[in-house]
Design brief:
Blueprint: H1 10-22, H2 29-37, H3 41-65, H4 71-79, H5 81-113, H6 120-136, H7 139-164, H8 181-192, H9 214-247, H10 251-258, H11 270-300, H12 309-320, H13 326-339, H14 347-358
Length: about 375
C-alpha cells in the first residue's frame, strides 16, 4: 500500500544518504588514500570530509529555498528555462555514466571474487533489473528498504572494525605530517569527490515531508561516513603498513579475512564484506536510476515516472560494457572524477544559490 507514497522522512533521507555515500568507498578508499599521502592518507580523508560537509551545506541551503521543486524547476527559475533544461540534461548524462561505471565495477569485483565462471553480462544485468524493480515501486519503498539495509550493512562493519583494533600497529602511521601541505590539500580535494552522492540532495525537495532539518541530516550523514572512512584507513594502514595498503586491491576485504569470529561458524569472513558492499551498491544504483527517471519526468512534464525506468536499462547496460576491462573502467572513472564530478557538488549549486539570493527567489526556511 506504500508503493505510490513518495514522501519520506528526514531520518530516511539520512539513512539513504549514508548508504549511497558509503557504497562509493567501502572497498577502495584506504588504498586510494595511501597512494596519495602514504601514512598521512587518513589526514587527507579528514580534509575530504570537511570539504564534503561544505558541499552539503551549499546544496541543502539551495534546496531549502525551493522546497517543492527539484533541480529541474529551480534551476529554470533562477537561470532561465533553457539554461535550466541544459543543466538538467547534463546532470542526466553525468548520473547515467556514473551509475554505469559503478555497475561495471560491481560486476568486475563480483566476477573475480564470487562468480568467476559467470559472464559479467549476467552479473550486471541481474543487478540492473533488480534495481529497476525497486525503483518502479517508488521512492518511499526504497526508503523503507534503506532503513533495513542500514543495520544489515553498517552494524556488522562497525563490529569488524572493533575486532580489528588489536591488530593495528600505530607505528605504521608514524611519523605524521610528513607529506607536503599542498599534496595533502590536493589529496583532500580528490578524495572529497568520492562523496559525489551528495548531489542527489538536489532532487529530493518534493519527496520530503519536512525540509527544516535537511541540513542537519546531510551533516550527520556526511560526518558519519567520513568517520568510518578515516577509521577504515587508519586500520588498513596500521595492519598492512603503507606499502601493504597500496598493493592490496581491496584492503577492506582482506582485513575481513583477518577477523577471528568466535565459534568460527563462517569459513570465509571476507565474503561478509562483499555482501555488505553489494547491498550498499544496490542502494546507490537504485537511487541513481530513480533520479535519472525523475529528471526526465520533470523535463517532459510526464504524469507517470515508472514507464521511463525500463527504457533506461539498455543505455546503462551498454555504457557499462564499453570499457574493455577493470583497468580501463578505473581510468574512465578517474576521468569523470577529475572533470565532471565537481560540477554538481559545488560550482553549479553555489552559482544557483548566489543568483537566487541576489534575485530574491525562493522561500528560505529559517531555523
Amino acid at each position: 500500500m506504500f508503493t505510490k507514497n513518495d514522501k519520506i522522512s528526514i531520518r530516511q533521507v539520512e539513512v539513504l544518504l549514508i548508504l549511497d555515500l558509503y557504497s562509493k568507498a567501502i572497498l577502495f578508499l584506504p588504498r586510494n588514500a595511501a597512494e596519495i599521502a602514504n601514512q598521512d592518507g587518513w589526514i587527507c580523508l579528514i580534509g575530504a570530509t570537511i570539504l564534503a560537509l561544505f558541499y552539503g551545506y551549499i546544496i541543502t541551503r539551495l534546496v531549502k529555498r525551493f522546497p517543492n521543486d527539484t533541480f529541474v524547476e529551480f534551476s529554470s527559475k533562477i537561470l532561465s528555462k533553457p539554461v535550466g533544461i541544459f543543466l538538467s540534461i547534463l546532470l542526466i548524462i553525468k548520473l547515467t555514466v556514473t551509475v554505469s561505471f559503478e555497475l561495471r565495477t560491481f560486476g568486475e569485483v563480483v566476477k573475480q571474487v564470487l562468480l568467476p565462471k559467470t559472464p559479467i553480462e549476467i552479473i550486471i544485468s541481474s543487478m540492473l533489473l533488480m534495481a529497476c524493480y525497486l525503483v518502479r515501486k517508488g521512492f518511499e519503498a526504497r526508503a523503507r528498504l534503506g532503513e533495513i539495509l542500514f543495520f544489515i550493512v553498517l552494524i556488522p562493519i562497525i563490529a569488524v572494525y572493533i575486532l580489528l583494533l588489536p591488530n593495528v600497529d600505530f607505528e605504521n602511521i608514524q611519523p605524521i605530517l610528513t607529506t607536503p601541505l599542498p599534496k595533502i590539500l590536493k589529496g583532500s580535494y580528490n578524495l572529497s569527490l568520492d562523496y559525489v552522492s551528495i548531489e542527489l540532495i538536489l532532487l529530493v525537495g518534493p519527496l520530503l515531508n519536512n525540509h527544516k532539518k535537511l541540513g542537519r541530516a546531510s551533516f550527520n550523514a556526511i560526518l558519519f561516513v567520513g568517520i568510518l572512512n578515516v577509521i577504515s584507513a587508519v586500520i588498513a594502514l596500521g595492519v598492512f603498513g603503507v606499502i601493504g595498503t597500496k598493493t592490496q586491491v581491496w584492503p577492506v576485504m582482506v582485513l575481513m579475512g583477518l577477523v577471528e569470529i568466535p565459534g568460527a561458524f563462517i569459513e570465509r569472513q571476507e565474503i561478509l564484506i562483499m555482501t555488505f558492499w553489494i547491498l550498499s551498491v544496490f542502494s546507490f544504483i537504485s537511487a541513481s536510476i530513480y533520479f535519472i527517471s525523475l529528471i526526465i519526468t520533470r523535463i517532459t512534464k510526464s504524469a507517470d515516472q515508472n514507464f521511463l525506468v525500463l527504457p533506461l536499462v539498455p543505455f546503462i547496460y551498454i555504457i557499462s560494457l564499453l570499457p574493455n576491462n577493470i583497468v580501463q573502467t578505473s581510468d574512465w572513472i578517474l576521468f569523470m572524477r577529475d572533470y565532471f564530478r565537481f560540477l554538481f557538488l559545488f560550482p553549479i549549486p553555489l552559482i544557483l544559490l548566489l543568483v537566487a539570493r541576489l534575485r530574491k527567489l525562493g522561500e528560505p526556511i529559517e531555523k
